[in-house]
Design a protein that fits this description.
The structure is a homodimer.
Chain A lengths: L12 H8 L9 H14 L8 E2 L1 H8 L3 H13 L3 E4 L3 E4 L4 H20 L6 H19 L3 H17 L4 H21 L7 H15 L3 H23 L1
Helix pairs in contact in A: 2-4, 3-4, 5-7, 5-10, 6-7, 6-9, 7-8, 7-9, 9-10
Chain A binds a DNA duplex through helix 4.
Chain lengths: 235, 235
DNA sequence: ACCTAACGATTGTTCAACAATTGCACAATA
DNA sequence: TATTGTGCAATTGTTGAACAATCGTTAGGT
């Protein structure tokens, strides 16, 4: 009871206002802009894992004060994309295998559970799932590796979105950013996501046809295999 | 396979080192100390929801620079304990009912799933669960309301800890801090946790005796009822 | 080869200044 | 009276410079 709002359906005017208005659209502050820039550089792999980010160089190239860079660093530290070592500096996070395992452990707690959650899914949720699947498949057709990875992430994001929790979505975004960092630092993962496209499709079908429990279990073993896959590639 | 490390058992030397050593024990920086102080004031209800935290007053009373206070604010903003409104200031977060519902939605995704996760629980995990239950009951005996609330939080923390994910634990800590803020701003919640002590005990027993699925479902309805309880108190 | 001292560079924190924005009091107007 | 401007005080946002604290390294001594 108390039907959970259909997350995808909530793209009406009211929701848009909800999102945009903490006080209209707040233009991002300088530290946020710096963090945005660095975050993108990191997850796209242009800033390699382990690289030191010196305050002066960044404040120089972006023309902001050192204090501003500093705040951007604390932002990114909270997202675990950089690590701060006292009196030594901040470095692009280098995800260890235990880290990666930890990440997948958390995903295995969240994602299957989201797939199992609440009453039935709304039509727009279903549509979003299918859209992500379709995007992935068509990206594969056109040989767009980046598109495949992106669609895959999108699918997982939608899955978690099914739970309809803003906070959970935010947390998931953080995890996905870390995932991108993993792949960025691994390299040679061009074909990594491809094999999972079909799984996404299968799980989507099951979830839609009401076989929620089977879908959830499928997603769990999916993630279990994925981490095993990574473990293999790293050893 | 690949037996998940027993989280409670990991309170040995190695784990302590793990925790303490990012580079030995890093003494907390000034912004962190300020954030620590404010966080405690907030979750204990000494700083009421909606209160504005002006940079000057805090930098004055704590004898730190405005910049430092500023960084502390971005820290707390990330934890959602304060909200920053551009050019207006930061205020102790006022959790709305939708916020609280969101919080419980997320907990309902995570906690039952953690209870269901992995292979069997290790002996020390079981012991930690039982300890939290015991602490809650004995706190009730001695009429220690704060002790009851604390033990309850401790139980939920242990439950999530069963998953053995550092990241998930960290996320859960954030959620629990928000929970404390909720109760702080609600007031009159002295007896709120008491009725759930028995549930904790029941669920613990089920989880221990291998009835994981029943335990998980029990925890889900537990949380469902808890949010309903709160909704009632607020209307 | 090993310990030690000194140095340079970077981070941590403070302080002061100024621009930008908000909220409000106050006045002007319909 | 109600409403619309206008100016002002206060607070935030950002910058720049300064200095202390710490780290890594290099040079020098044993």
């Amino acid at each position: 009871m108390n039907p959970r709002p259909d997350p995808a359906h909530t793209s009406g005017l009211i929701e848009q206002l909800e999102v945009a208005s903490t006080r209209f659209a707040q233009p991002r502050s300088a530290p946020e802009r710096v963090a945005d820039f660095l975050r993108e550089e990191i997850v796209q792999g242009r800033l390699v894992s382990g690289t030191q980010l010196t305050e002066e160089s960044i404040s120089g190239t972006l023309s902001v004060a050192r204090n501003t860079v500093r705040e951007a660093f604390t932002l990114l530290t909270g997202e675990r994309l950089v690590i701060r070592e006292a009196h030594r500096g901040v470095f692009v996070t280098r995800l260890s295998l235990p880290d990666i395992e930890d990440l997948y452990r958390m995903r295995r707690i969240i994602e299957p559970s989201a797939l199992r959650s609440g009453p039935e899914f709304g039509p727009s949720s279903i549509e979003s799932l299918q859209a992500a699947v379709r995007d992935g498949l068509s990206a594969r057709e056109s040989g767009d590796r980046h598109g495949v990875a992106s669609a895959n992430q999108s699918w997982h994001r939608v899955v978690v979105g099914l739970a309809g929790s803003k906070r959970l979505n935010h947390t998931m975004s953080g995890l996905l950013a870390e995932m991108r960092l993993i792949f960025a630092q691994m390299g040679n993962v061009e074909d990594f996501h491809i094999k999972y496209l079909v799984r996404n499709a299968e799980i989507t079908d099951r979830a839609i046809s009401g076989e929620r429990d089977e879908a959830a279990r499928g997603l769990d073993t999916y993630l279990e295999e994925a981490i095993a896959d990574i473990q293999e590639r790293l050893c």
